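hey m, so remember when u said the tokens were messed up on ur end? i reran from scratch. heres the input so u can diff it against urs
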Amino acid sequence: MRRIKVYGPELRFAAAHFITFGGRCEPLHGHNYALAVQLKGDLTAESWLFDFVELRRLVVGLCQELDHGFLLPTENQHLDVKRAEGHYHVSFGDRRYVIPEADVRPLPIDNSTAERLAEWLAGRLAEELRSRGAANLSSLTVTVEEAPGQSASFTLPLDSTPPGNK
């Protein structure tokens, strides 16, 4: 079993979010997220796992999708989310947010925690790898760092797809 890993300053995005927990909702705040991606598998006939440059390009693309947006967990049962007249209206108790659609990154997750972001990103990356025929890969791990010293990782076997990415 072989491994490769990509990380670095171009694998970052800045985004706003809040999470709900224990009947509460955090204040709206932001992070400068950093990603690392590890692939495991067997070498190809050309003696490599996957092209580093291509993997980095795929991860940069995902970072660009999320960059400078509000991460909205559309499957959060504690949020009331509506779209109207080019805006998202998001409510939690007496908190109300109205955000232009262009600034929202709706994600099919239940909470915008680093754990769920890592899982969602792994699912998106798995789709891209499958579409490129990377049949030699057995798993991928995505690590989302939301602050120095704070990160969450999700490992996805490449013969499955996590919930929220089907």
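this time it looks ok to me. The longest helix spans residues 114-131. if urs says something different then somethings off w ur setup not the seq
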